[in-house]
Amino acid sequence: MQFLVKVMSLALAIFLIASLMPGVSVNGMSDAIMVSLVIILLNIFLKPILVFLTLPITVVSLGLFLLVINASIILIASNLLHSGFKVDGFGVALLFSILISITNSILERISQRLDNRQNR
Length: 120
Hints:
Layout: H1 2-20, E1 24-26, H2 29-45, H3 47-53, H4 55-60, H5 65-80, E2 85-87, H6 90-119
Antiparallel strand pairs: 1-2
Helix pairs in contact: 1-2, 1-6, 2-5, 5-6
């Protein structure tokens, strides 16, 4: 159940930000769900490898290089999903990943609070 909430929360964040941000396009909510699934899978399987390989750079940059890794994952997802999701460049992907992280964090907090209210 938590995985489904995570997928839907990320899909909603992707759909909202893509509709507001120039340079990012998603065709609909079903494509946003596909994008969220691909990003989650890339974060599970590819991100740990990238973090390990770039550990010295990440340490020297005090963790800021993780933003580059997140933007790279967005670009990889855009390349994997040829139809339905498009990101225009690295700078757009960087800003998009930052906004997605913030929005997704807010949506997950709302979801947790609603879940806590139901459990009382």
